[in-house]
Amino acid sequence: MAVEKKEHREDGVDSLTISPSSLFEGLSGPQRVLLTHGDSITTLAPDFVVSAISSGNIISAIECQERKLYGLQFHPEVDLTANGKHILRNFLYNIAGLRGGYTLEDREERAIHHIRQVVGAKKVLVLVSGGVDSAV
Questions:
Q1: Which end of the chain has less neighbouring CB within 10 Å, N or C?
Q2: Which residues make Cβ contacts (< 8 Å) with residue 48, sequence separation at least 6?
Q3: What's the rounded Cα separation, in Å, for the pair 63 and 41?
Q4: CA–CA separation, 42 vs 31, rounded Å?
Q5: How many CB atoms lie within 10 A of CB 80?
Q6: Angstrom distances, CA of residue 94 to CA of 21, 42, 70, 82
Q7: pTM (predicted TM-score)
Q8: Which is nearest to 21 in space by CA: 82, 80, 69, 78?
Q9: How far apart are the first and last CA of the chain?
Q10: pLDDT tens for each residue of 68-84
Q11: What pLDDT shows up at residue 103?
Q12: Three-class SS of the chain
């Protein structure tokens, strides 16, 4: 696989042309997505195929279905990507095989129970910074 810095960045909402893919199952036609990148894939790794191309003819999604490896060069997690939740749902449930029974309440209760078991009556100092990715 080769990635190179392109002369022009792809920033903003764009339209992708998608190919048949487990990731895009249930979707058809051009897909509105948010792009924010200056580096792009120029050569695929063995067994990978292109599954989406931007209007600028730049690779926007790749996959190796046999190994269940997928790469996106756009943001499915934002509202500007019209079917981002659908794409994430396909990945989580159809590809990764998750069941969707997880709730934040379950996680909180389990974490508190585990901490109490480990810590007991000792004191604990907890430092949490910023956003979600800082509190993992």
A1: C
A2: 1, 62, 63, 64, 69
A3: 12
A4: 22
A5: 14
A6: 11, 28, 13, 19
A7: 0.73
A8: 69
A9: 30
A10: 999 999 999 999 999 99
A11: 77
A12: CEEEEEEEEEEEEEEEEECCCCCCCCCCCCEEEEEEEEEEEEECCCCCEEEEECCCCCEEEEEEHHHCEEEECCCCCCCCCCCHHHHHHHHHHHHCCCCCCCCHHHHHHHHHHHHHHHHCCCCCCCCCCCCHHHCC
**Cα 134 from Cα 15, distance rounded (Å):** 32
pLDDT band at 7 (very low <50, low <70, confident <90, very high): confident
Ramachandran angles phi, psi of 107, nearest 5°: -60, -45
d(CA 108, CA 97): 23
pLDDT digits (tens, 9 = 90+) for 42-70: 889 999 999 999 998 889 999 999 999 99
φ/ψ of 133, rounded to 5, equals -70, -15
Q: Does position 95 have pLDDT exceeding 90, yes or no?
A: yes
